[in-house]
Amino acid sequence: MTPADMEARIVRYGDLQPCKTAFIDAHTPGSNQKENFTIIGGGVSESPDQHVHITTPHGFNIGAAGQPPKCRNSLHNHRTAEVFFILSGRWRFFWGEKGDAGEVILEKGDIFNIPTNIFRGFENIGTDYGMIMAILGGDDAGGGVIWAPHVIEDAKDHGLILGANGKLYDSKKGETLPDGVDPMPLLTQDELAKIDCPTAAQVLGGYVRRYLDMVALSGEGPVKVIGENGIIRDKPGFEIDFLTRANASTEMHSHDKPSVLMPVAGHWRVEWEGGSATLAPGDTMSVPENLRHSAVPSMSGEAALYHVIATDDPAGQTWRNG
Fold first, then answer.
1. What is the CATH number of the domain that holds 156?
2. 40: β partners
3. Which domain holds residue 258?
4. Residue 244 domain-assigned?
5. Is residue 1 part of a domain?
6. What is the reported pLDDT for 321?
């Protein structure tokens, strides 16, 4: 594969195209400055303005959220796995229908495998613009977002209506629901009662892993972060490995499915049969199936990278960590 062909499969951090109208809370004070990025796959954006950088199916979606300080993402739920790692900034994740059931603070490199069937939200509590990278299970990411009822009601007060077809309509622009399209119904009390609400101990013990702890584990080969035998023991339709200078190898290898390389620290030189490229934190590289390649740090200093590949498991969390 030529360098030009591979460059088309690399989304550079500086080339990311944000969308500020991706979701129903785009006008809601406190959430109206967030930027949504869809890097690989269609994601779950509710807006036609969302740019998709790489449309090739991978068995999962890659996205990102960028937010200035004190900006939050409203409480929502997904039908498939949602995994975040912190690229920059300091972030508070919270859960429960009202966001008051528990919280965890995450920093650079930390990873959170958020369980399905819980309401979750997050906010940048740092002092600078921050970015979190996301992996969503399935090629269609479960068909969209399920919002907490108060989020839909708040959005309507600020001019945005979500149709039952999953599309947004902005009354401030004179848009109305098309004929035959009803508003997205609010979850009933019976439906809300079926939403999980784990304790903080369950979340911290089962779903969160700290960057420095993974660095400490990386001396004897790649750290299986999420997988059947991972330090987060789960089967969400993909696996995630953690690489550092200590466990990176120049040995060429390949996979039978497309894989994704996502640096979080340092610069990484990726070589393949036909060329090479250097990745920096925030870059995302899609490696085609059956292409022999390797990835190693290209400069001295701290270096860490997440590697994602689909599995044949269903695109949703099938196990619960206790």
1. 2.60.120.10
2. 54, 62
3. 212-310
4. yes
5. no
6. 46
Is beta strand 304-310 parallel, antiparallel or unpaired with respect to 238-244? antiparallel
Residues 35 and 184 in one domain: yes
Taking residues 121-137, report their average pLDDT.
Answer: 97
Co-location of 148 and 255 in the same domain: no
The structural domain count of the chain equals: 2
**Mean pLDDT across the stretch 68-90?**
95
Gap between the Cα atoms of 195 and 119, Å rounded? 8
Q: Positive or negative CA dihedral for 64, 69, 74, 78?
A: positive
Task: Report pLDDT for 316.
Answer: 65
* Phi, psi for 120 (deg, rounded to 5): -140, 150
CB 148 within 8 A of CB 76: yes
What whole-number distance in Å separates Cα of residue 187 and Cα of residue 207? 26
For residues 208 and 104, is the Cβ–Cβ distance under 8 A?
yes
Q: What are phi and psi of 153, to 5 degrees?
A: -70, -40
Residue 142: pLDDT band by 50, 70, 90 thresholds? low
Phi, psi of 5 (to 5 degrees): -65, -40
Q: How far is CA 188 from the centre of its chain?
A: 28
Q: With helix as H, strand as E and coil as C, how does 126-181 read?
A: CCCCEEEEEEEECCCHHHCCEECHHHHHHHHHCCEEEECCCCEEEHHHCCCCCCCC
197-238 confidence digits (pLDDT tens): 999 999 988 999 999 999 999 987 899 999 999 999 999 999
* β-bridge partners, 146: 77
pLDDT at 44: 87
Q: What is the predicted pLDDT for the residue at 319?
A: 46
Domain identity same for 38 and 175: yes
Average pLDDT of span 126-143: 89
Is the CB of residue 123 less than 8 Å from the CB of residue 73?
yes
At which of 167, 193, 208 does a domain end?
208
User: Does 5 map to a domain?
Assistant: no
**Structure tokens of 52?**
């998709």
- Provide the 8-state DSSP code for 235: -
Give residue 143's pLDDT.
64
